[in-house]
Automatic annotation (TrEMBL):
<keyword id="KW-0175">Coiled coil</keyword>
<keyword id="KW-0812">Transmembrane</keyword>
<feature type="region of interest" description="Disordered">
    <location>
        <begin position="155"/>
        <end position="182"/>
    </location>
</feature>
<keyword id="KW-1133">Transmembrane helix</keyword>
<dbReference type="InterPro" id="IPR010406">
    <property type="entry name" value="DUF1003"/>
</dbReference>
<feature type="transmembrane region" description="Helical">
    <location>
        <begin position="36"/>
        <end position="56"/>
    </location>
</feature>
<feature type="coiled-coil region">
    <location>
        <begin position="97"/>
        <end position="124"/>
    </location>
</feature>
<dbReference type="Pfam" id="PF06210">
    <property type="entry name" value="DUF1003"/>
</dbReference>
<protein>
    <submittedName>
        <fullName>DUF1003 domain-containing protein</fullName>
    </submittedName>
</protein>
<feature type="transmembrane region" description="Helical">
    <location>
        <begin position="76"/>
        <end position="95"/>
    </location>
</feature>
<feature type="compositionally biased region" description="Basic and acidic residues">
    <location>
        <begin position="171"/>
        <end position="182"/>
    </location>
</feature>
<keyword id="KW-0472">Membrane</keyword>
Length: 182
């Protein structure tokens, strides 16, 4: 296969094999470290570490086993704390970036859920309006009762007016006439 000029040349000679770590795995590790760095336990451990370091190198440790000279301002301790801080800062930033990505996804899901809820609410509002319109044309119980009351009053008025002269519908009228009139 011919070499391509638009891509970098791969080196076949490597001293160390390439380790491929998934972005998700490194992100989980960085989050767990950043989570630990933000705990009171870490502050306590770091305080104990510094106190022991200072005590060993200042007074407690044998003279020949001391490795950080107080006359130089505990240079090794300063370098150790700088090294810890130089690793902690990028790990915290990685964890924050992952959290930002999760927040972005959550916000998008919340937005989509809100849109669906709005669409459902608007649909239900339209359905309620159409039901109200449909119900306005339906006779209600009070309307039917008032119509029946009016009919009873009309019948009572007719019977009272017809009570003066016997007719086929009157109680004094002929039974044959009543059955044929209806």
């Amino acid at each position: 296969m011919a070499d391509r000029l638009d891509q970098p040349r791969e080196s076949r000679r490597t001293l160390l094999p390439r380790v491929r770590v998934g972005e998700d795995a490194s992100g989980r590790v960085s989050e767990s470290v950043a989570r630990f760095l933000g705990t009171p336990r870490f502050i306590l451990y770091l305080t104990l570490f510094c106190a022991l370091w200072l005590a060993w190198n200042a007074d407690w440790g044998p003279e020949r086993l001391r490795f950080d000279d107080p006359a130089n301002g505990f240079t090794a301790l300063t370098l150790m704390l700088s090294l810890q801080a130089s690793y902690a800062a990028p790990l915290i930033l990685l964890a924050q970036n992952r959290q930002t990505d999760r927040d972005r996804v959550q916000a998008e899901q919340d937005r989509q859920r809100a849109e669906r809820n709005l669409a459902d609410t608007e649909f239900l509002a339209r359905e309620m309006a159409s039901l109200r319109i449909a119900l306005s044309e339906v006779a209600t119980r009070d309307f039917v009762r008032s119509e029946l009351r009016n009919l009873l009053e009309d019948l009572a008025t007719e019977q009272a007016g017809a009570g003066d002269e016997p007719g086929p519908d009157s109680p004094r009228g002929d039974a044959r006439h009543r059955s044929t009139d209806r």
